[in-house]
Amino acid sequence: MAFILGSGSPRRLQLLAQLGVHPDSVRPPEIDETPLKNELPRAYCVRVTREKTEAVPAGTGDVVLCADTTVALGRRILGKPRNAGEAAEFLLALSGRRHRVITAVAVRRGDRVWEKDVVSQVKMKNLSDVELNAYLATGDWEGKAGGYAIQGPAGAFIPWISGSFTGIVGLPLSETANLLRAAGLPLYQEAAA
């Protein structure tokens, strides 16, 4: 049985290591992540995760894990910004407000799929122009849903969360551990030598 991580996220690799799980292979799937018309953020996140899981090639006994993290402001999905201008737009929309961070996780082994999604609430402080511009200059917004990562410099902008910190980072550990156990993958193993 091989364990395959269907994600190129270094954060997810680090979080899996906390469970003592080290993928035999990393295979980020290539899928269209465009939201469907009128698709709500939670449904979008779950659908994309399921599609990622189906897109990763694996043997029948292999365990595949995929996840997706979506930042939602009301019904609006804030994906990964295409450029600094869009990152600024996202951060200004989030500034001084609460928003949701949804992370869906799916684990596949053969024809069986185990899924879970976790919704966390996040409050971002009012950002000054100086803070916004300094943050954008770090480049930390690149490749991050909503244009920020709570575990990076933007953590200074987050005075309050309710939910799963690791879910906000990109992989809710408690739920992920339960899914991997259900699929028969042992946790807390030493890294392969």
From TrEMBL:
UniProt keyword list: Cytoplasm, Hydrolase, Nucleotide metabolism
Residue(s) at site: Important for substrate specificity: R11, T69, Q151
Stored CDD domains: Maf
Coiled coil: none
Active site annotation, chain numbering: D68
Gene Ontology CC annotations of this record: cytoplasm
Record's keyword annotation contains Nucleotidyltransferase: no
Key word Cytoplasm present: yes
Entries under Pfam families matching the protein: Maf (PF02545)
Main location: cytoplasm
Superkingdom, natural source: Bacteria
GO biological process: nucleotide metabolic process
EC code(s) of this entry: 3.6.1.9
Subcellular compartments: Cytoplasm
Protein purpose: Nucleoside triphosphate pyrophosphatase that hydrolyzes dTTP and UTP. May have a dual role in cell division arrest and in preventing the incorporation of modified nucleotides into cellular nucleic acids.
Family of this protein: Belongs to the Maf family. YhdE subfamily.
Record's protein name: dTTP/UTP pyrophosphatase
Lineage: Bacteria, Pseudomonadati, Pseudomonadota, Alphaproteobacteria, Rhodobacterales
